Amino acid sequence: MAGVQVLAQLRAALPAGAVVTDPAAVLARSSDAAGAAAPGVALALVLPSTTAQVSAIARIAHAHGVPLVPQGALSGLAGGANAVDGAILVSLEAMAAIVRIDAVDQVAVVQPGVVTDDLARAVAERGLFYPPDPASSSRCTIGGNIATNAGGMRCVKYGVTRDFVRSLEVVLADGQIVRTRPPTVKAVGGLDLTGLVVGSEGTLAIVTEATLALLPAPGPTQGVCATFATVAGALAAANAIMAGPHRPSTLELLDSVVLAAISAYDPTSTLPAGAHALLLVLTDAREGGSADVAAYARAAHERAALTVDLATEPDRLDALLAARRAFQPAMQALRGASLNEDVAVPRSRLPELIERLAALAAGSGVTVGTGGHIGDGNVHPVIAFDPADPAQVAAAQRVHRQILDLAAELGGTVTGEHGIGVEKLVALDAELGPTVRDLQRRIKQAFDPTAILNPGKKL
Amino acid sequence: MAGVQVLAQLRAALPAGAVVTDPAAVLARSSDAAGAAAPGVALALVLPSTTAQVSAIARIAHAHGVPLVPQGALSGLAGGANAVDGAILVSLEAMAAIVRIDAVDQVAVVQPGVVTDDLARAVAERGLFYPPDPASSSRCTIGGNIATNAGGMRCVKYGVTRDFVRSLEVVLADGQIVRTRPPTVKAVGGLDLTGLVVGSEGTLAIVTEATLALLPAPGPTQGVCATFATVAGALAAANAIMAGPHRPSTLELLDSVVLAAISAYDPTSTLPAGAHALLLVLTDAREGGSADVAAYARAAHERAALTVDLATEPDRLDALLAARRAFQPAMQALRGASLNEDVAVPRSRLPELIERLAALAAGSGVTVGTGGHIGDGNVHPVIAFDPADPAQVAAAQRVHRQILDLAAELGGTVTGEHGIGVEKLVALDAELGPTVRDLQRRIKQAFDPTAILNPGKKL
Which residues of A fall within a CB distance of 8 Å from B134? Predict the structure, then answer.
């Protein structure tokens, strides 16, 4: 049996303990945080600690036609790191070194298993700044961030993970090790393989080292927390802020369903009560931060804000950010389970999106709370449902599909930052069309002709 | 003969006058501004005015296996838009509409033939800002900027053309029309086809419409012009500025050869005399601009600047920028011809690059002047030579190759913003290696299986 041979070769190529076949241990690493689709049954879990070992794994898998599923912290929300039948799960978590932080070139060279917050702290100690901040930053890894082109609250000012990936060392499907690009700020000698690998969810290559761009440390974070009688009012204030010169570093919305869910989930949270929408608008400007805050407050007042609180004290700010981070757990706690959507539209279409989400939710049998990165037009409608109630499970699935369709109808995307994984494959024809999907598959084939890299995902 | 059929079909598909076969007119559109390599002899020049016409051209070319060479303003510096034998030159200059400027979504939708400065002016009138500013911005087109991933002086703060291309409408080699991506700020549903097409120099697809990201208008430009006794001193000041919180919007170097050439080319230029290096450091901050300027002046003084002039008055600033823009024409005027290099290295390697460039030039028989975007580690060594002197022509070619090799040796790139075209194909093995080159060719094949799009370029 091929599986036996593959395992023997893996054990010969890797250190003792780096090949795990215990079914419980493998099962524990078979699903990411999306949780909806049932994963496949993997052959083994491997824990390489060097690029050479990743290369050896790929060569073995390539020779035998065995699928490889690259994995980080399993915090993904689309099933992108889920096991597929017969696959080798390749955990990059043991490759967690920060190789180098260079203050002159303003880059960090890191292995894929570095936890995002650990990198952020390490560069901050050098007076530098790594902006991407996905909600799971305390546990997710840079490799996973690269695989999904992860976003976060600071994207509205700084951009997404791709904007900070300067060069990658990757292992190709046949085990060859290449660098995608010189580590210079600008380079147009080659096609943009770096940007292509970012966001490819492990379907094109396995990232074994990344050179990441850094910025000088920002100023102190401060801002405004404003509430509104309608979501439309909050959106109008947000548009006014984005149209002005005071570009916020964070511009987040929480609707009334989410606000109620957070207050129930954490009674100590000090969110303003009774509002239909909350805006959190922050700046981290080195200079002119007070002018930014004043501009945000003015924009809120001019759009009939119910309350406008200055969030300039660190304690108040931490409390607000903690409440914002409780968004998804609070929605999940509401009925016991949740589906986390991740749609994005041009900002001008947000009012229509929000209105039609409310219409979808009304009478559906499930609860939909919406919040997220409205400065980027990227919101997370979260569908809360009781997993023990078949009617609610079915309703959640129905609303899930309706939300995907709605995003496409409004000229948007079904995923701004979470990825396609397995959960959103159904939506790709509507979003990309058959010609682009076919082109993507041919690009996949150029990288991975025998289709062993994370098959069944993304494309 | 196939050519006759192709021309007949093109004439049937396009409006009267849009198919040009007059040899002089075709020859006039057969070379870009690189000027070194002799172009091929094209079959015809076509001037489509709609995406449907571009699609029809591609279908005809695809059916007959005729090469297509997409062209903008022919201001490129690598031969990327040069004619190849038997090709149809596809000028996109007639597709020059600014379709839409949207202040809420902060995007501009444009056709490829729009001149960069025309777009910049149009969005400025709406209080918005399109940052990419290649030196040829008064005549180059957005389509050409996208093809080369053009840079410019403001990249050090804002990034390159790719960072502002949100979505593209492209015509594929077989004539199919697709959009690469929804026009949302964030979208991870597909592979990054947008970034892949940007910088591909017309080898993957023909861009027929671009949705470009805009920013709110910046503040007034102001800064510092400082001179130094050594290039090393100027580089040290530049590194100090980049390491600090006062990120400049422009950080340019001119060495003594360039300074002398500019003073000879334009005696009215008011550059400080007698210096070995000049730094131009500008800010366009809305708030804190004065603090930025003070920080730049301080950094220059601390690195023993000979002179530090504040450039805060518009007239003085315009004069300095005009002198900087005279860099390449002045070097060309020095001996009658020039080769414009475009190397980039990590900023920490700049001192070694500059030192070894000087060593290469010494006794070579040609003159090398270096300047450019040192905030990005991207400099333009310009080789000035007498085109009537065979010894100098040979020396220029020799130094050209040595500079390409040097960039690769220092872990850099042979092209930060100009592209590969035909002039730098020789350097690709050293920079990318055979595995990446092969991977690029397979990606090309995924887009263009019959290899009709700009063959012989880039890859």
Answer: none
Nearest residue on chain B to A181, judged by CA atoms?
A: B432
In chain A, whose CA is at the least distance from the CA of B155? A186
Of A198, A415, A442, the CB nearest to B189: A415
B454 and B341 in a single domain? The answer is yes
The residue among B145, B161, B160, B157 whose CA lies nearest residue B77 is: B145
| Model-level ipTM above the cut of 0.90 | yes
pLDDT 10s digits, B58-114: 999 999 999 999 999 999 999 999 999 999 999 999 999 999 999 999 999 999 999
CATH number at residue A440: 3.30.70.2740
Report chain B residues whose CB lies below 8 A from the CB of A346.
102, 105, 107, 183-184
| Structural domain that includes position B196 | 98-216
Which residues of chain A neighbour B171 with C-beta distances below 8 Å? none
pTM more than 0.95: yes
Q: Tokens in use for A166?
A: 């300067």
Residue B162, class by beta-carbon neighbours within 10 Å (0-12 exposed, 13-18 middle, 19+ buried)?
A: buried
What was the pLDDT predicted at A1?
Answer: 58
pLDDT attached to residue A431: 94
**CB proximity list for B337: less than 8 A, separation 6 or greater:** B35, B384, B385, B386, B387, B396
User: What is the tens place of the pLDDT at every residue in B129-173?
Assistant: 999 999 999 999 999 999 999 999 999 999 999 999 999 999 999
Residue A36, pLDDT score: 66
Claim to verify: residue A231 and residue A204 sit in the same structural domain: no
Instruction: Indicate the residue of B287, B418, B442 with minimum beta-carbon distance to A287.
Output: B287
- Tell me the chain A residues in contact with residue B346 when contact means C-beta distances shorter than 8 Å: 102, 105, 107, 183-184
Record: contact B344-A377, CB cut-off 8 A: no
Q: Which of B152, B181, B216 is the last residue in one of the domains?
A: B216
By Cβ distance, the residue of B196, B346, B413 closest to A196 is B196
* Residue B449 and residue B344 share a domain: yes
Domain check: are B305 and B253 in the same one?
A: yes
Based on the fold, state whether residues B205 and B297 are members of the same structural domain: no
Which of B325, B349, B373 terminates a domain? The answer is B325
User: Any idea what the CATH number is for the domain that residue A177 is in?
Assistant: 3.30.465.10
Contact predicate B250/B280, CB 8 Å: yes
How many distinct structural domains can be found in chain B? 4
- Alpha-carbon torsion (B131, B134, B135, B136), positive or negative: negative
Query: Looking at the partner chain, which of B192, B435, B459 has a beta carbon nearest the beta carbon of A195?
Result: B192
| Claim to verify: residue B301 and residue B191 sit in the same structural domain | no
- Min Cα–Cα distance to chain A from B205, Å: 12
pLDDT on residue B1: 58
CB under 8 Å to B46, separation ≥6 — which residues? B10, B14, B18, B19, B20, B57, B88, B89, B90, B91
pLDDT at B343 over 70: yes
Distance between CA atoms of residues B108 and B125, nearest Å: 13
Q: What average pLDDT does the structure give for chain A?
A: 96
The predicted-structure confidence for A104-116, as pLDDT tens digits, reads as follows 999 999 999 999 9
Band of pLDDT at residue A89, cut at 50, 70 and 90: very high
CA of A347: which chain B residue's CA is closest? B105
Do A297 and A385 belong together in one domain? Answer: no
Distance from CA of A342 to the nearest CA of B (A): 10
Which residue of chain A comes nearest to B441, CA vs CA?
A446
Measured in residues, chain A has a length of: 459
